[in-house]
Design a protein that fits this description.
The chain has helices at residues 10-20, 28-31, 35-47, 54-62, 86-102, 130-138, 162-172, 222-230, 257-268, 273-286; strands at 48-51, 73-77, 112-120, 140-148, 180-187, 211-218, 239-245, 287-290. By secondary structure, the chain is α/β, with parallel strands linked by helices.
Length: 309
């Protein structure tokens, strides 16, 4: 008895699809093998949406085909591609299209529950586009969120500008599903007037948050990180990593754990000595400050351990 492609178990077929399609420039190649490959491949593509240009986002939102598949992950990777602030409008329309294909459009619809929302692009910030950015992310409710810049990892660059960074942190608080957050190439400068960062938590209270990774960050206030432990409860928090995080520009010093501890002490001591000791113990147990990328010349150079105490 000879085995045929039509007899492949679904589990093996999906493994083949999952290992082939992500790197395939022409997905239609494998989808044309037979009907079984086509159906499984289309389902996989719709469950794991990946957009590599603004035009793909725009065309997807306009497509009339209804695959009837709820997406599990969405990736927007504009590495090496031209983009504008319109990308947020197209992303909002594309995600809304996914939701509307599953449910009848109606006011006050729930956001799409995603396993992962991954962005690799600039924030393309303009005062007139900030609301589009917020609308795009409000359509989703991911468990894992990652936003990195499109430049190579060893380049110091800013992809997420200050006004967008603050809005992004507020949006995190609206996601009931979020557990893991990673953002890099971010600056917290140009903050809103009237906000005292030394006592305002970097993030709002997020009960389910497990991990927070902030990398290549500039103008990050040590007090805002300390307030995560002093003001917020964050009962589920397991780990916070600050990697190449600077209190000012990259020509200044990296943030060290002792900076966070001192900021926490300034917030709490001497009003509540016992609680202060508990907060410091939690900071030492959950927070790591690390160095990853060194400048060729100048800046805060660290020898030996990658951990900044």
């Amino acid at each position: 008895m000879h085995a045929t492609l039509d007899k492949l178990p679904p589990e093996i077929l999906f493994l083949i699809i999952a290992s082939t399609l992500p790197g395939e420039l022409a997905p239609s190649n494998i989808l044309c093998v037979n009907r079984q490959f086509h159906d499984a491949g289309v389902e996989w593509l719709y469950r794991n949406l990946r957009f590599r240009s603004q035009e793909q986002l725009r065309l997807f939102a306009q497509a009339s085909e209804n695959a009837g598949v709820v997406p599990r992950s969405v990736t927007v990777d504009l590495t090496g591609k031209y983009g504008t602030s319109d990308v947020w409008q197209y992303l909002s329309e594309a995600l809304s299209t996914c939701r509307d294909r599953i449910e009848e459009p109606e006011p006050g619809q729930e956001p799409i529950l995603l396993e992962i929302l991954c962005l690799r692009l600039h924030s393309y910030s303009q005062d007139s586009s900030h609301h589009l950015f917020e609308e795009a992310l409000s359509v989703t409710n991911p468990r894992v969120f990652r936003w990195t810049g499109p430049d190579p990892e060893h380049h110091f660059s800013t992809a997420i500008v200050g006004p967008v960074a603050r809005r992004l942190c507020r949006i995190f608080g609206t996601w009931s599903n979020i557990q893991d957050i990673a953002v890099t190439n971010i600056t917290f400068s140009s903050t809103f007037l009237g906000v005292d960062e030394s006592v305002t938590p970097l993030l709002p209270e997020i009960p389910g948050l497990r991990t927070l990774y902030v990398g290549q960050a500039t103008f990050l206030n040590a007090g805002s990180v300390a307030a995560l432990f002093c003001v917020n409860t964050m009962a589920s928090l397991e780990r916070v990593r600050l990697v190449d995080a600077y209190c000012e520009s990259i020509w200044g010093s990296r943030i060290r754990r002792s900076d966070i501890e001192q900021a926490a002490q300034a917030m709490m001591f001497p009003q509540d000595v016992l609680q202060c000791e508990g907060v410091l113990a939690r900071i030492r147990g959950l927070l790591t400050c690390e160095k990853k990328t060194e400048r060729i010349i100048g800046g805060d150079r660290v020898e030996g351990s990658i951990f900044l105490i």
